[in-house]
């Protein structure tokens, strides 16, 4: 296991290097001049050239990449061209809000999906299985932003039960922070629960026909003991994989929900950076998200061994 982890960590710099090349050069293909956005349309050509020189955009693109990559190796992700703040500082400012939303959405998804998947897999082709499967199909088909808007209209505007926008730290004010967290977490968590329940059901169907399940039943164990004590643990393997992948996706893919609920996280940060052609922020967020995605998947691989001791690397 130790050798496997070290080998995966050794591959990390190479993956990030290739990703940095793709992100850096693709961003330069986006139409629009960052200097023009910074100065506005009513400016002279001399002023624009001066700003381009200050921003380093007058140099060849290979030179720009080399300078930026050298700074990244020293831990400097550059400076925002709009706010003039360090990119790493901006990411760390927005990270708590996105992490809070990501973790709470995962909890909502797991709490909904695991029990429903177990029930559907333990009772295949029953009326419960048919209802759960139909509901999960709706969950997959419904766009997350539409569900978020419906929650705002019904729960926030019509019933006025919960606030519909903004963010409050759970550390500063747990009560208000939890109220503002519920709706976006349900919107994201429900969309995650739909595929998770299907994976859990599929895993349960695979293990329920295994020999050790028949042996457990032959010993006289109750169906509840067979399902919860023997089947669920092995059926969780595929679910753990999906949860790990979804954590990485949520960490960098909460842009739409953050926009709908005005949640000041990394999603809104990168959306604003793209609109302003603030390359440094986009590059920093993408590299940070990729690093988190890779480390989470490594953690998932390690968890496999503890869930199923038969797995060896």
Overall 3D geometry? Answer: globular
- The percentage helix is over 70%
Secondary structure class reads mainly alpha
The top-level CATH class of the largest domain is Mainly Alpha
C-alpha-based Rg, rounded = 24 Å
Question: Count the helices. How many?
Answer: 13
Query: How many angstroms separate the termini?
Result: 6 Å
Output the CATH topology of the largest domain.
Answer: MetI-like fold
Mean pLDDT across every amino acid position: 81
Largest sheet: none
What percentage of the residues does DSSP assign to strands (E)?
Answer: under 5%
Low-confidence stretches: none
Annotated CATH architecture of the largest domain: Orthogonal Bundle
Please identify which CATH superfamily of the largest domain we are dealing with: MetI-like
Tally of discrete structural domains: 2
């Amino acid at each position: 296991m130790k050798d496997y982890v070290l080998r995966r960590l050794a591959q990390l710099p190479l993956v990030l290097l290739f990703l940095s090349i793709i992100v850096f050069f693709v961003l330069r293909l986006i139409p629009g001049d960052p200097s023009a956005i910074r100065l506005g349309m009513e400016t002279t050509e001399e002023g624009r050239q001066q700003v381009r020189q200050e921003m380093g955009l007058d140099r060849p693109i290979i030179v720009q990449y080399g300078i930026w990559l050298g700074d990244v190796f020293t831990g400097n992700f550059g400076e925002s061209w709009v706010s003039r703040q360090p990119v790493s500082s901006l990411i760390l400012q927005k990270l708590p809000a996105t992490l809070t939303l990501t973790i709470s959405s995962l909890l909502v998804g797991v709490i909904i999906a695991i029990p429903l998947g177990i029930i559907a897999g333990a009772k295949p082709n029953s009326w419960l299985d048919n209802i759960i499967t139909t509901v999960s199909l709706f969950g997959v088909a419904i766009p997350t932003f539409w569900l978020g808007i419906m929650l705002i209209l019904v729960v926030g505007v019509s019933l006025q039960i919960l606030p519909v926008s903004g963010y409050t730290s759970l550390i500063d004010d747990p009560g208000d922070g939890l109220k503002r967290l519920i709706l976006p977490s349900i919107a994201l968590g429900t969309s995650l629960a739909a595929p998770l329940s299907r994976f859990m059901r599929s895993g349960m169907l695979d293990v329920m026909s295994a020999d050790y399940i028949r042996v457990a039943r032959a010993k006289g164990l109750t169906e509840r003991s067979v399902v919860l004590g023997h089947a669920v643990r092995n059926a969780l393997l595929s679910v753990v994989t999906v949860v790990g992948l979804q954590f990485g996706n949520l960490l960098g893919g909460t842009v739409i929900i953050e926009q709908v609920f005005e949640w000041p996280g990394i999603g809104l940060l990168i959306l604003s950076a793209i609109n302003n052609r603030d390359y440094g922020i986009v590059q920093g967020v993408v590299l940070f998200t990729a690093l988190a995605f890779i480390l989470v998947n490594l953690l998932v691989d390690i968890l496999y061994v503890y869930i199923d001791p038969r797995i060896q690397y």
